[in-house]
Amino acid sequence: MRGTALILTVLAASCATKKQTANQTLTLKTTAGPGGTTATATVGAPKKEGIKKFSDLITGKIKADSGLFNTYKVDGKYYYEIPDSLLVREMLVVTRYVKTPAGLRTFGQQYGGEQLNEQVWKWERHDKQVFIRVPSYSVRADSTSDMYQSVKNSNLDAVLASFDIKAFNKDTTGVLVDVTDFYNGDIAAIGLSDDVKKAYKISGVDGARSYIDTIKSFPINLEARTLKTYRSGESPTDNSNGAVTFELNTSMVLLPKTPMKPRISDARVGFFGQRQTDYGTDKQKSEVTAYIHRWKLEPKDPAAYAKGQLVEPKKQIVYYIDPATPKKWVPYLIAGINDWNKAFEAAGFKNAIIGKEAPTKKQDPEFSTEDARYSVIRYFASDVENAYGPHVSDPRSGEILESHVGWYHNVMNLLRDWYLIQTAAVNPAARKAQFTDEQMGELIRFVSSHEIGHTLGLPHNFGSSYAYAVDSLRSKSFTDKHGTAPSIMDYARFNYIAQPGDNVTHLYPQIGEYDLWAVKWGYSWFPGNKTADQEKDILADWTNKKAGNPLYYFGRQGTSIDPRLQNEDLGDNAMKASTYGIANLKRILPNLEKWTYQKNEDYGDVSELYNEVLGQYYRYMGHVTTNIGGMNENFKTYDQKGPVYDFVGKGLQHDAVEFLNKQIFATPYWLIDKAELGKFDNGVMYNRIKGMQVAVLGNVLSQSRLARMYDNEAKNGTAAYTVAELLNDLRPAIFAAGKPDAFKRNLQRGYVENLRSLLTDDFRGFPGFPPQVLASFGLTPINMALSDIRPMVRAELKKIDAGLPKGGDALTAAHYADLKLRIKEALNPTRPIVNLPGGGVIRGINGEEMPKENTGKGYLNCWPRTNVDN
């Protein structure tokens, strides 16, 4: 999710001083947060004029815009009157696009309403200047701790900008500063990201074509809207302009003087959060403390709450629907928001959350969808097939302050494709090119609930769907009650398991048992002014009582070691679930043209959906492959018995290989419908199927997977599924008796080349990451040069060579001769290895890195359309 706070620093020599002349410039060097890059912004420095009387600058005719800071506009200049009481107060600053040029294409934000930057500012006076300081919250110590001063000495707040004091107000309780050049300048903290600047070769702001549109002050926030034209060598629309123009809005919101009491995270319950290194504890080392992100909910009636009655919160969570949203979808988006009320009831609150239509200009002239005080579902006129749910939180405590859900128009096309491909075999209503508004509305409601879950602090729970037995998803009574998974935050998608005749009609996820549990854990209010550590103990007891029950299991996103933690899978057995899924794909594929018929339209829909069938089929292969060399991950505390990590059983691993042998290494000819392919395929489909076969094989034979299998064998002996058994199970399927056709010849070459890469390619992780960290994401390190993998691979290549038949027709004979040559070169390398899809970084025999194929670009968000998932 987006929303990482940026930390900006200013070079000491660049701050304006009295010695600067009118021709000098103020250079701010800004450094982005983790993974960011560095950019330099230059703003013309104003001529020194000394401190004047307030009335000389702000005459009686000029009316203040009263609020957080009183603001004034005088002859095109903008002034802030900063009261002493707000100096050194922390303020959250969020910059968003208001409008963007057509055709903008960058990784990440590109539409009006999307967030560019997030930062905390403190306005601080020093002598005759005011500075914007940017605090860091990565390390801390309580103010009563002996370490407090030491931490402060090593955690100096960076200076973002400086302003000369122009005047003191009438009663000298505040200062006046000119912010015109600051907001008009090229400041990374309130401007474009480095990615956008690089993409369009931006060299700086053109002041003649830029201006401050408005600065408005409200009781707890300031809203500054600017139009900025950047000089650029590229343009998304017209290079003859030599420029690209954006409208931006920067919200500055006063943070609470006393931060919300944080809630300490627990890896067994999924929440977004933040981490700090705390030097103020009684531990004999620094301690990393993690807090969850959550809204601040407190009961209006604490006494009634304590008695177990449902109580409304003091402040309701409110989401507004972008006025740009098509009216017919608004009720469904609101329903998706309001669906979370049943989860908050589990935490003791009623009417905790509500969705509303945004007020009109007549109803509230000051309302703005860019205003950081308001949470909004923003609707983007975009062909991107996606939606995402970020949130902005107080870095001191984890309190969620607002959210702007991003909703791209074409997510509807993605939903149409998935719903048809995953359910049409049992769902006649999905057998058409265009869904009814009611059908699409219910799918929108489902996605709305999922994205709102993220904005409440809940990440994806990839382990949730494993809680339901595969056969339960063929039961009408079960699915009517439970949907497809205990959590709407899983990537469970739609029910591809149900078969014709099962009469299953409830086909998508819903807010379930896990979601109610997670909200109860994160949002329950405890009376008695307990400390965060005291609450932690209570919550740990709750969690221990749920341990072992798969309904309440949280499985993190991002690891490929645990077959339970996969996106877009269903049920507790991937082999069984995928067999049902393939049976349904076989029913759907021959009917695509009939079901999507549209008069006077081309075959674009047939082509798109045919490719979706291939993508769904390939997902099933990934779901199954993860069982091989897989490990179950169950985070535990000292209070719980049993291992955190244990290996997938030998039988399941063997079943996974047998499934792959049957479903993909034996060519899936059912995917080749010549009549349909003739409508759109211009010669790529056969190669795509070949590529999938070899990619799955490469995934099975990955270094990290084999490393885990050897680890399993070392720990568990004959109870482990070994590499030797894996190769013995694969070889007969890949080198089956009989004349090999084009697919089998391709697969056999792929097998030899994958084995050869294991002989020549060393493990390449990410420098600086400890082995345990890499292994936790499935990149299990191994020293290939010293491992048992290479002796085993050499033996396997020799077995293949000895077993290759002789003779045959010219093509078959040439194929076997080629395989013998490849095996000889693998054992005695003389040329670089080929580039195989599905592998890691590919290197030649001299260590040179070779370009990767099949590298797709996607979005790091909720609903990317992908063909490869594991």
UniProtKB/TrEMBL annotation:
Question: What stretches pass through the bilayer?
Answer: none
User: Does the record carry Acyltransferase as a key word?
Assistant: no
InterPro entries attached here?
DUF5117, DUF5118, EcxA_zinc-bd, MetalloPept_cat_dom_sf, Zn_MMP-like_bac
Q: Which PROSITE patterns match?
A: PROKAR_LIPOPROTEIN
Q: Which organism is it from?
A: Mucilaginibacter ginsenosidivorax
Annotated DUF5118 domain ranges read 51-100
In this chain the EcxA zinc-binding domain maps to: 433-737
Q: Which UniProt keywords apply?
A: Hydrolase, Metalloprotease, Protease
Q: Which CDD domains match?
A: ZnMc_MMP_like_2 (cd04276)
Q: Which GO terms describe its biological process?
A: proteolysis
All copies of domain DUF5117, residue ranges: 113-300
* Gene Ontology MF terms in the entry: metallopeptidase activity
Answer yes or no on keyword Transmembrane. Answer: no
This protein is called what?
A: Zinc-dependent metalloprotease
